[in-house]
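Support request from a user on the community tier.

User writes: "When I paste my structure tokens into the form, the page sometimes reloads and wipes my input. The last time it worked, I copied everything first. Here is what I submitted, just in case something in the input itself triggers the reload:"
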């Protein structure tokens, strides 16, 4: 996945070391500066833009993206489940096969959790910036008043 100043996030398939553009999305966030996949939900993406906002979306809801990556995600999920079961000393066979619907439900839940966490962090940063600006504004007013009184 890439994001750029053209205001879009692009999802690429790098199978066989050959980049293939799968999907392009204008995020409506201005120039894009950062993007990241959610480590717990591989199709959930967070993107930050020049308008000072972050958007989290589930790329697995996009039909051509889901079609392109579904089999690889299912295989990776099964492998991770088997490794976790082996590490816990459990039977490696999963008790039931996860369907794409199960995965998307889990991803949507993770996206909502991630969005809430990101929104809280963004709000905290915005509050710090506003407090710093207000403090700086007060200091500048006091300085101007001091200079006025000297005259």
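"...and here is what came back when it finally went through:"
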């Amino acid at each position: 996945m890439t994001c750029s100043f053209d205001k879009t996030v692009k999802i690429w398939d790098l199978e066989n070391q050959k980049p293939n553009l799968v999907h392009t999305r204008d995020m409506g966030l201005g120039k894009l500066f950062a993007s990241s996949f959610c480590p717990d939900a591989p199709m959930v993406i967070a993107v930050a833009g020049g308008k000072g906002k972050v958007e989290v979306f589930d790329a697995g809801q996009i039909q051509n993206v889901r079609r392109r990556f579904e089999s690889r995600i299912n295989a990776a999920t099964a492998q991770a489940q088997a490794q976790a079961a082996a590490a816990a000393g459990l039977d490696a066979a999963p008790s039931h096969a996860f369907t794409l619907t199960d995965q998307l439900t889990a991803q949507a839940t993770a996206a909502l959790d991630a969005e809430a966490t990101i929104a809280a962090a963004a709000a905290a940063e915005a509050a710090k910036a506003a407090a710093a600006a207000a403090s700086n504004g007060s200091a500048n007013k006091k300085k101007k008043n001091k200079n006025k009184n000297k005259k």
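Agent notes: The reload is a front-end session timeout and is unrelated to the input. The longest strand covers residues 20-26. The CA atoms of residues 3 and 43 lie 15 Å apart. Escalated to web team.
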